Batch of 2 targets.
Target 1
Amino acid sequence: MDALNREAATLPGLVRDRRFRMECAAIVSLAHRLTRRLRREDPLAGRVALKRPDLMYAAGAALRAWS
């Protein structure tokens, strides 16, 4: 997963369309957050889901990709 996340992290910088770049940045940040959460929590024992802070973090990543 880490190798795929590292590879995906380069994607927003390659996208020229601003809105699509922002969406890519948000998705990449959510993938990183989910990866960390899956390392801490057992998906077989309970639901591993995104929480409000994770979504706010993704929104911040999208805004940083604006430029």
Note: The mean pLDDT is 89.
Target 2
Amino acid sequence: MRKTTFWGAACSLIFVALSSAGNQESWTFRGQIADSQCALNVHSLTRSHQEMLKSKSMGGNSAACALYCVKYLGGNFVLTTKKHVYHLDNQELAQKFVGLKVKVSGALDSKTDTIHVTKIESEE
């Protein structure tokens, strides 16, 4: 009888864990699509494109700098806000909005700071 109760409880816990894993809540985030190299201070002191644009080797604006950093320096597209940098799981969609202020909808994985993107809209 004890084994049956134990396995019943274990199966119930597994079922609850699996059913809630697919129900991630969707959130809306606002910020700018940038690159991880500049946004995470890999080669920037200000979490921006400021230093790279002064050197004139990365293009003449934030979008050109971000595209250069992703293509040639191993960066990824990210969403930057005033206080946070979020990784984006849909790089192709993010590239279409590089350098723009956007509204991103999706579920946040708080362990990795990754937004599982469902939609990106320009706010410009």
Note: The radius of gyration is 20 Å.
